[in-house]
């Protein structure tokens, strides 16, 4: 029973979103509903003039048919009185219309014929305007709502903790933002168009049929379940299979993402065939699941069609019997047949809209799973601070990933302006310590103090405004070099950007480019070398003018020449700032105020370079190994 409950909750979530959109954009919705009503009137009004037109045509055939006088004692029903009034009014309208234009005709029925053409023409002109407005407003409503949903997703992504992204696949997340929301867009388009217009069209047809042939309403009421029940049952299958189909599409997107982001590795190791095989497999899975979705949609429409045709057949039989046994005229029959013949198209569109709504409920389940993920608690609340001196202390800090201890009782103190180097074997907890200092995570036990304030009690935005990071894998946005440097301090002037670039030893290179600071960095900085990318990120950090600086193996991936230039820029950057440095090459941190050796999440040694070398411990062995690789 859990599965139906889950499906119901997905549908309820979709309906809540639609309702929220209706409330938020109520003016747009009111306009949409108003123009939809006008469209229905313009579409169905010509059906009502069929009876006066056919009556005139029947009366014109006087040579073959003698018109019987009306029975004065016959009691007319309400619908018959209404039709008689409308017929008389329409005759008078036709006469007045011809008199207005000064038209005269030999045949007395021509004013009615002219009035029929005039009404149909006016409905066509007005209807085209209403159709334009409905289509424009409804489509924009759909795009507006989906744009809001994508913005909500993007905002939520930015608010999630880093741990969330470590457990997700990038391609699947991109698929949810693009493909799943695209399905949602179709849902809102249907909701704004078919779910509004077509039910009104069906209602208009039912009113016309009920007005001229009330017996048909009973047939419609009895046969309605024959159309609704199959549509509901198949809709549940559409929703379930849609979720699986979109999941497969996410896997296909992830496979393509792996190809594009790892294209150098793919080509270098000749993995083209293997990657293509994996992409083909995910595509086949997606197509197979999509076929099941389409099959359920097709059965839904087919079964609704059977129900509709059965109802139509019964109505036609009753209508034929009524014609043969009563004085029902062919003019009335014409009015009944017209809406009956057009009604199926509206029923089919409503069925399709319902299927798409269920499909969208399946798509929304994946989106909601992200939106319901708790945001990073660190981004909420906190005490505002205006400045940071740079005094930092870790007090008996413990931290683990998925139950595996990473830091175990780490303590350290750094005075403002000091450089603290973290060294040790891989997996010792160096990068995790920097993550905690940046408050990407909070300690499970212990505390981190900045200027004597517990970091968990400080407003995160205020704190990070005084920090900067230079990592071993520099990231550049696919925009100009000016923007890549300038994002360190939004609103910085060109002079400030150039000054930071000079301090990072990258200004001369930029100035030599044909487009100067407008040169595009390329996707992930592909237009630049590793050393140039690193110096751009250093210029970004210099421009930020942080009180606390974090350097995560900033030179480990560079060649000797590039390392020298970058190291000089880093030395400039560290002056006067509290700096935490993770270093693989120990020669870059010999002048650090403190060197901490982390092994298995614990600080096993600490001190200056000279004191640690003299201690002849872990650090000394690391130094010896780098100087003499064969040292054990």
Assembly state here?
single chain
Q: What is the rounded distance between the termini?
A: 63 Å
Given the structure, what is the number of helices? Answer: 21
Runs in which pLDDT lies below 50 for 5 or more consecutive residues are 63-67
Q: What would you report as the Rg, rounded to the nearest angstrom?
A: 38 Å
Arrangement of strands in the largest sheet = 6-7-8-3-9-10
Q: Structural class of the secondary elements?
A: alpha/beta
- Portion in beta strands: 5-15%
Largest sheet: 6 strands, mixed
Approximate helicity band: 55-70%
Number of strands: 10
Average pLDDT for all residues = 82
- What is the overall shape? elongated
Architecture overview:
This protein has 632 residues and is an alpha/beta fold. Helices cover 65% and strands 10% of the residues. It is built from 21 helices and ten strands. Helix 19 links the parallel strand 7 and strand 8. Helix 3 packs antiparallel against helix 12 (330-371). The radius of gyration is 38 Å and the shape is elongated. The relative contact order is 0.08. The model is unreliable at 63-67 (pLDDT under 50).
């Amino acid at each position: 029973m859990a599965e139906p409950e889950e499906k119901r909750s997905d549908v309820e979530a979709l309906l809540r979103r639609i309702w929220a959109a209706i409330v938020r954009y109520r003016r747009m919705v009111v306009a949409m509903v108003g123009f939809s009503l006008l469209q229905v009137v313009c579409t169905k009004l010509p059906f009502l003039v069929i009876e006066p037109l056919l009556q005139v045509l029947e009366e014109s055939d006087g040579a073959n048919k003698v018109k019987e006088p009306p029975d004065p004692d016959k009691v007319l029903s309400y619908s018959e009185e209404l039709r008689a009034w409308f017929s008389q009014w329409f005759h008078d309208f036709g006469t007045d219309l011809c008199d207005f234009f000064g038209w005269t005709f030999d045949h007395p029925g021509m004013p009615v014929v002219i009035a029929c053409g005039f009404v149909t023409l006016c409905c066509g002109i007005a209807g085209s305007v209403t159709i334009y407005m409905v289509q424009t407003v409804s489509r924009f409503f759909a795009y507006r709502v989906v744009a809001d949903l994508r913005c909500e997703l993007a905002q939520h992504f930015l608010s999630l903790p880093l741990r969330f992204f470590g457990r997700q696949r990038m391609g699947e997340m991109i698929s949810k933002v693009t493909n799943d929301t695209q399905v949602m867009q179709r849902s809102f388009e249907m909701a704004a168009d078919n779910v509004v217009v077509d039910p009104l069209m069906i209602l208009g047809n039912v009113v016309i049929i009920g007005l001229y042939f009330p017996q048909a309403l009973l047939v419609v009421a009895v046969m309605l379940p024959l159309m609704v029940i199959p549509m509901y049952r198949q809709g549940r299958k559409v929703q379930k299979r849609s979720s699986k189909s979109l999941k497969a599409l996410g896997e296909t997107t992830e496979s393509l993402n792996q190809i594009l982001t790892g294209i150098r590795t793919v080509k270098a190791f000749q993995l083209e065939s293997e990657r293509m095989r994996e992409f083909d497999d995910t595509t086949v899975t997606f197509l197979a699941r999509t076929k099941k979705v389409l099959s359920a949609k097709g059965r839904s429409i087919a079964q609704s069609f059977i129900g509709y045709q059965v109802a139509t057949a019964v109505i036609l039989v009753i209508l034929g019997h009524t014609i043969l046994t009563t004085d029902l005229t062919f003019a009335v029959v014409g009015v009944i047949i017209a809406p009956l013949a057009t009604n199926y198209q509206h029923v089919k569109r409503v069925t399709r809209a319902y299927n798409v709504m269920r499909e969208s409920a399946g798509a929304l389940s994946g989106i909601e799973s992200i939106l319901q993920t708790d945001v990073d608690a660190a981004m909420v609340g906190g005490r505002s601070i205006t400045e940071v001196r740079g005094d930092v202390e870790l007090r008996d800090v413990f931290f683990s990933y998925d139950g595996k201890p990473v830091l175990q009782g780490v303590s350290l103190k750094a005075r403002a302006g000091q450089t603290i180097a973290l060294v040790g074997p891989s997996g010792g907890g160096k990068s995790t310590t920097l993550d905690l200092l940046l408050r990407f995570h909070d300690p499970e036990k212990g505390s981190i103090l900045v200027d004597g304030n517990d970091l968990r009690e400080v407003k995160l935005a205020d704190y990070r405004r005084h920090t900067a990071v230079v990592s071993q894998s520099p990231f550049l946005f696919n925009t100009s070099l000016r923007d890549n440097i300038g994002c360190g301090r939004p609103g910085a002037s060109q002079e400030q950007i150039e000054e930071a670039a000079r301090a990072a030893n990258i200004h001369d290179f930029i100035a030599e480019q044909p487009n100067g600071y407008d040169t595009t960095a390329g996707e992930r900085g592909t237009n630049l070398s590793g050393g140039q990318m690193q110096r751009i990120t250093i210029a970004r950090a210099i421009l930020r003018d942080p009180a606390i600086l974090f350097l995560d193996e900033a030179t480990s991936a560079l060649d000797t020449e590039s390392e020298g230039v970058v190291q000089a820029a880093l030395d400039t950057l560290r002056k006067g700032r509290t700096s935490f440095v993770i270093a693989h090459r120990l020669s870059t941190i010999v002048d650090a105020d403190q060197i901490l050796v982390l092994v298995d999440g614990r600080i096993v040694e600490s001190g200056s370079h000279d004191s640690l070398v003299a201690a002849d411990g872990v650090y000394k062995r690391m130094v010896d190994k780098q100087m003499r690789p064969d040292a054990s």
